[in-house]
Amino acid sequence: MTAPRIIEPKIRSVLQQPLTVGESPVWDEETGALWLVDILAPAILRVSPQGKVDRFDMPAAVGSLGLCRDNRIIVALQTGVHLFDPVSGDIEFLCDPVGRDINGRLNDGKVGPDGHFWVGSISEAKPQMNDAALFRVGADGSTRTVTTGLTSSNGLAWSPDGRRMYHSDSRQCFLQAFDFDPATGELGEGRRLRSFTEEQGRPDGAATDRNGFYWSAGVSAGRLNRISADGEIVEIYILPVAAPTMPCFGGPDLRTLYVTSLSSDRTGRFEAGTVIAFDANAEGLPPFRFG
């Protein structure tokens, strides 16, 4: 086992306005816009190729978003999964996989190769409970519970061939992988790839590159971990933000890594959430679309 390469990338700032909990960056390769959420604002933001920022206020805490085939945005709100039309501002309720009987909300979510929205919940009990889950949501609002016993569902991403799904639990600090059928969305048994220490970075949001490596935001360690298909950290990207939450690939050639972060005083001084970017030595994949 070789020691991981330590890299300090040349960072540029993408957003001047502060975020509370920046999350869920998604690159729209058709328009060149970067979408993301500010969970507690609560709001969706769209950053144009020229850097113009459009803000869409949401009626409840917003955990994540995905692109739809009809140019709407699928959003995971505290009150359930909704379809948002950025042109009209209309928000249409689709389903509520969590229900109101547990103290939690929807968290990390992503559209999969099967055109469904995969979204997990997070426990908001104090102390947190292992009553969160991962759900698969269809265009007709149908919901299937896929995995239970979670505390903070996170880190969804798929291998380039769509035959493996990655998933993490930020609180329980593990990364797992499932065999995945991209045509049907059927999952095989989950298997643990690795566990993380706080120093290595609790596994938050993630992305995969065209070579099959998994990029995990180490939210407790100010870094991105590039991880091989067998769970080995091969590269560590040291970032100038204390609490990175999720990377995504974007730019015209999908070689720019955008990284969101959350407000933190982990380093001893308060730092607002933001979005940063750097040129990666890897190429990403365009996002899947819902519907």
Low-confidence stretches: none
- Which strand order do you get reading across the main beta sheet? 1-22-21-20-19
Strand proportion:
over 45%
CATH level 1 name? Mainly Beta
CATH architecture descriptor = 6 Propeller
Q: Average pLDDT across residues?
A: 96
Q: Considering the protein shown, what is the CATH homologous superfamily?
A: TolB, C-terminal domain
Please tally the β strands and state the result.
Answer: 26
Shape: globular
What summary fits the major beta sheet?
5 strands, mixed
Give helix and strand order, one letter per element, not per position: EEEEEEEEEEEEEEEEEEEEEEEEEE
CATH topology: Neuraminidase
Distance between the termini: 42 Å
How many DSSP helices? 0
Q: What integer value in Å does the Rg equal?
A: 17 Å
Query: How helix-rich are the residues, as a percent range?
Result: under 10%
Q: Report the structural category.
A: mainly beta
> How many discrete domains?
1
SSE topology:
Layout: E1 5-7, E2 12-13, E3 22-28, E4 33-38, E5 43-47, E6 53-57, E7 62-68, E8 73-77, E9 80-84, E10 91-95, E11 104-111, E12 117-123, E13 132-137, E14 143-150, E15 153-158, E16 164-169, E17 174-180, E18 187-195, E19 203-208, E20 214-218, E21 223-227, E22 233-238, E23 244-250, E24 256-261, E25 275-279, E26 289-290
Parallel strand pairs: 1-22, 7-26
Antiparallel strand pairs: 2-25, 3-4, 4-5, 5-6, 7-8, 8-9, 9-10, 11-12, 12-13, 13-14, 15-16, 16-17, 17-18, 19-20, 20-21, 21-22, 23-24, 24-25
Cofactor: Zn(2+)
Family: Belongs to the SMP-30/CGR1 family.
GO biological process, one term: L-ascorbic acid biosynthetic process
